[in-house]
Amino acid sequence: MKILAIETSCDETAVAIVEDGTRVLCNVIASQIDVHALTGGVVPEVAAREHVKVMLPVIQAAFEKTGLDWSDIDAIAVTKEPGLTGSLVVGRMAAATFAFAKDKPLIEVNHIHGHLYSNWLDSEADIAFPVLSLTVSGGHNELVLMRGHGDFEILGESMDDAAGEAFDKTARLLGLGYPGGPAIEKAALNGNSESVDFPRAKMQGYDFSFSGLKTAVLYYMQAHPDAKVEDVAASFQSAVVDALVSKLIKGVKAFDVKEVHLAGGVSANKALRAKIETRLKGRATFRFPKKMSYCTDNAAMIGAVAFFTSNPPSPLSSH
Ligand code: KG4
Ligand code: ZN
After folding, report:
1. Euclidean distance between the first and the last CA atom of the chain, given in angstroms as a whole number
2. Ligand 2 centroid from CA 265, angstroms
3. What tens digit of pLDDT does each residue of 63-110 get?
4. What residues does the ion ligand 2 have nearby, CB within 5 Å?
């Protein structure tokens, strides 16, 4: 079954064609990163207008790359929520219009559920449930227990900033540019992670909090204007990684999970991956997305979640 998937929840206009939820036939992403770098972050109105400009060319590119046409497509999947309203509307209108015009089933899915399925992309593995997934990106930060396909429980989430947002805001504070995650990771390679002992928020249960940490970096820089930026970046990164991994390991023990999955843009972070690997001590199979383009927002994961959680796809008339 081939699904054409559309994702426009934030600042990427993405279209993919995915076969049987795992085989990515194409994964086209038009990034707006250059536009938003000018403002140091995403301006919602600007993002929506950019989606309008490239939506049809990106769909066209997906067909050109695969040599397929509409007659090969069995269903259309699209991100319904959460995300920037103006951006979501562009993708949903395009999906609904093509579903109507080409007489295809329309499957609307949740963006975060999409990230959960990024570990199924290009994977031949028989993934075993229960899976504990740490989904960390710029807009969201959740620890999700996946008991089976479509059977998800959010154990914890960030009470304020998502981890990626904390990376982005702290990078701006340190003058490291946008997007902040890769910039901090790079700077941290030349820094000492033990030079500043930033606070680790003590949150109840499985929840997270990162805004206090960001403020601690601000106060530290005000008090130590000559501090080595690389040391502060490394110490900040280590505090975020500790907070994420301690909750993850707590969940692994409590729910006796078979696999641990990392997803979302922050899953690209090598310090985070390494710490999970060390702390897991082989207790569960550890996976992260096969490609960087599956970590950050993409449409292939939307095609995967649509396949695994909507079988058979609901007909257009039911929406
Ligand atoms: O999943 P994503 O594309 O966007 C949302 O859905 O929000 O994730 C983007 C986020 C940004 O905050 C970016 O700074 C962060 O992922 N990120 C990283 C790294 N690469 C991207 N954070 C830490 N380390 C990285 N290497
Ligand atoms: Zn995302």
Report:
1. 21
2. 7
3. 999 999 999 999 999 999 999 999 999 999 999 999 999 999 999 999
4. 137, 297
Nearest CA to ligand 1 atom 3: 296
Are the C-beta atoms of residues 6 and 78 closer than 8 Å to each other? yes
218 DSSP assignment: H
pLDDT, tens digit, 9 for 90 and up, residues 191-231:
999 999 998 888 889 999 999 999 999 999 999 999 999 99
Residue 135 CB–ligand 1 contact under 6 Å:
no
Residue from 62, 83, 123, 164 nearest 261 by CA: 123
32 alpha carbon – ligand 2 mean position (Å): 14
Q: What's the chain's average pLDDT?
A: 93
Measured in degrees and rounded to the nearest 5, phi and psi for residue 198 equal -70, 150
pTM of the model: 0.91
Residues forming a β-bridge with 256: none
Atom number in ligand 1 closest to CA 237: 23
* Residue 32 beta carbon below 6 angstroms from any ligand 1 atom: no
